[in-house]
Amino acid sequence: MSTQLLTNVHEGVHLNFAKNSVYVSGNYEYYHYLCDKFDDRGWGCGYRTLQTICSWMKLNINSSIKVPSIRDIQSILVEMEDKPQSFLGSRQWIGSFEVCLVIDKLFDVPSKILHVNKGDSLESIVETLSTHFEKFGSPVMMGGDVDCSSKGIMGVHKDGVNSSLLIVDPHYVGKEISKEFLQNKGWVKWQPLKDFLSMSFYNLCLPQAKSKVT
Question: What is the pTM of this model?
């Protein structure tokens, strides 16, 4: 499965401002709806972003651990008693907290959770994200409530209120033609902070792991 997935889909994305931008370090694979022929449309975005992060862990931290399937992820959360037995085989979504649990369980890597309250400016987390990419370089998971669509964050551009996050969107359905195709269609893009929903809270999972690959 993984050999058919595109890697590092953020590379080459158009950006008018090269300065004050930091990015994910190391390779990752792009997981999205139906990428393994399992139909998770409408509820699986958190799992797919987690799989993308796990692929980074596999390629940069521990190559002996495979990227878990959605069923595997559900089993782990049930075994950890974070979820009831009825969670197995369900279509219940997961968020940044569950992503932290699975990454810690599989790779023994802790994560930092950033919480942004409703109405608060995302500008408050830009410096933290920038420091994260400079120090660790691992992909970041972002989820919310009103804006409940999971997103992978692969970079940040610092420019005050005009700052942007580099988003890798797991909601794409289809066969990835190329990185350019995904970028041209907006599945991989720089999203200005002002385009996020102020009425939504956001939780971000920042895995505290640095690539061992040189």
Answer: 0.94
Q: Retrieve residue 183's tokens.
A: 């970028």
Give the Cα separation of 162 and 209 in Å (integer): 28
In the block, residue with structure tokens 């509820």: 43
Helix, coil or strand: residue 115: strand
Give the pLDDT score at 2: 45
Q: How many helices and strands, by DSSP H and E, does the chain display?
A: 5, 7
Catalytic residues: 45, 169, 171
Distance between CA atoms of 73 and 182, rounded to whole angstroms? Answer: 26
CA distance 112 to 110: 7
What is the per-residue pLDDT across 168-180, written as a single tens digit (0 to 9) for each? 999 999 886 799 9
| Confidence at residue 1, expressed as pLDDT on a 0 to 100 scale | 41
